[in-house]
Write a structure and sequence with these properties.
Length: 280
């Protein structure tokens, strides 16, 4: 989530800086329609360039901002506790690795900066892969808590989990107050679509046919849930991203933002080798 917030933060920053420059220029002359269209083409080209630079920086991360390498992201001993609805699980992932963030394809990126200030986007991740050499899990599924009907299982085995053709498209609006107040984004929309899932999680109720059956159910359930609940997912993304991005923007001038981005991604990225490989 921090990676997504940072990308949107940088994307907005470039848009806002161009808006500030344009507003200053308008005090001295009026641009023709042709000039406005030309400026719009240049602005959109600059935004795409910055976003591609961010993708190239992912293997090194942004140490000054506390963001580790993201392509791939690795963690020797990752512990996760998830409590949602009827599921409560504690998981330990040994030699966890996440690949694919830097493979984002920019299908659409258009910035409107005159009257209706908004950014339209469409990104596609061809493959996002999570792997772990060992997954230790302790999971409880409580279907009828009041009747005491629950299932608890423990398992241990390798993990390989892949999202195929993850599509994220939508738009958001932005404000730049010139006298007082905070710069911010609002009305964030994100439609998420998923081409499919590959799940190979070992150690779920053994490693035989039952384990394969559960993995098949995971593949079908996740794909259907994402594609059939786009409005609900969009709302949750907005609730998670907008406050975080606006909190980063609060109290700072646009040039400070550029200083942070420039100092954090200056120079060529020479990533350290990942200490272990992904599962094949």
């Amino acid at each position: 989530m921090r990676a997504i917030c940072f990308i949107l933060f940088a994307l907005w920053a470039l848009t806002a800086a161009n808006e500030v420059v344009d507003s200053e220029e308008e005090e001295y002359w009026d641009e023709s329609l042709e000039g406005i269209q030309e400026t719009g083409l240049i602005l959109n080209s600059q935004v795409k360039k910055v976003l591609r630079n961010l993708l190239e920086q992912m293997p090194c991360g942004w140490p000054d901002l506390g963001i580790p390498p993201l392509a791939p992201y690795s963690n020797a001993d990752l512990n996760v506790h998830l409590a949602r609805s009827v599921v409560d699980t504690n998981d330990q992932l040994i030699r966890f690795r996440f690949d694919g963030l830097d493979g984002m394809d920019i299908k659409k990126l258009k910035v409107s900066y005159t009257f209706n200030k908004k950014v339209k986007y469409h990104f596609i991740f061809k493959e996002l892969k999570a792997t772990a050499h060992i997954l230790n899990t302790n999971t409880t599924i409580d279907l009828l808590k009041e009747l005491g009907v629950s299932v608890n299982f423990e398992g241990s085995g390798p993990l390989e989990f892949i999202l195929h053709d993850l599509s994220i498209q939508g738009q958001f609006k932005y404000k730049i107050p010139y006298l007082w107040g905070s710069i911010k984004i609002y009305k964030f929309e994100a439609i998420v679509g998923l081409g499919g899932v590959t799940s190979n999680i070992g150690g779920i109720l053994g490693n035989g046919k039952l384990n394969r059956y559960i993995n098949d159910q995971i593949e079908n359930t996740i794909t259907s849930y994402i594609n059939d609940n786009q409005k609900e997912i969009s709302k949750k993304i907005e609730e998670a991203i907008v406050p975080n991005v606006n909190a980063k923007l609060k109290g700072h001038k646009i040039w400070w933002i550029f200083g942070q981005l420039g100092s954090s991604s200056s120079g060529k990225c020479n990533p350290e080798p990942v200490p272990w490989t992904a599962l094949e």
